[in-house]
């Protein structure tokens, strides 16, 4: 099943999946009137200069027997959504100490990290389920608000291990009601990504208790969005909007519009020379470009043109990350990725697929065989460097500490 939202709305797509009791993944990518949102190519510098998002906006909605079990949201910087949710449970120190990205459960590090926290008894099953349910509701709020997008549903193996199973009709009904309530705040409140500042402290203090004012003032820094506050406080941003709306309307609080989040500014190097990357691509030009660009950044790079040879050598090389072309002779990239994922040695190794097709069907196929991410050729040097850093580098300790300080 595939199409656009001009042909069918998202609620109807969900209902068809529910009625058929389907198990698989629904991929949804919004697009503008001018076409699909493109990945960053040669204009990387100008985009970065404008501080726009560097990756496409898309979601993977996982279903088991017609029920929603998880939504992977690719609109946030890497693992930032999970970091926000974890602040309420004070487990950031353990989260930051994890050296490898655990992706053995599913092709989404966020979901796998939650399972790791559960297995290590850092979170209870109830707490993990609460986070997943909140993530699903947050993503559905965004999905049910869009009107232009393409989608494809692929039948596949159930997401495992499974944390929650939510019935579609009651869930979407509640979200639609929240969207209608949110619209009543427009244009005074226009986005959950808005932050706020207090501009009339004296009048606001006359309306709030000292404790309530202190709590509100704590978050009124002009940088922390309603979305982040709701994640940290275990509430929804609609409830926050109801609290501040009257004071925004009176001019006592000013809303700050989001200017875009630079996605690469929270990463730091971990001695790249200690990182080994294997590139599997039968195209000599691509192979040489990857090697030249990444070696100039200090990474150790091994290139292999023959996919059959790669499968035999890669177990000896034990790389930290694998770049693999999709279109190759004898074995294509999907087959190589699937074989590697069946090996315990590479269940947690990031695998980035390369393709010449800007096609969301290819992206879904890559995700289904266990690929970690997807890069379209031709790609820019900085785009490649950014994507590698996204999976090789850990989140900046200093940035996280500054972020966490607000909740202490």
Shape: globular
Total discrete domains: 3
Instruction: Work out the strand percent.
Output: 15-25%
Mean pLDDT: 79
Task: Characterize the biggest β-sheet.
Answer: 6 strands, antiparallel
SSE order, one letter for each helix or strand: EHEEHEEHHHHEHEHHHHEEHEHEHEHEHH
What separation lies between the terminal Cα atoms? 47 Å
> Portion of residues in helices?
40-55%
Which stretches are low in confidence, meaning pLDDT under 50 for 5 or more residues running? 32-55, 260-271, 394-408
**How many helices does DSSP assign?**
17
Number of strands: 13
Q: What structural class results from the helix and strand content?
A: alpha/beta
Q: Which radius of gyration do the C-alpha atoms yield?
A: 22 Å
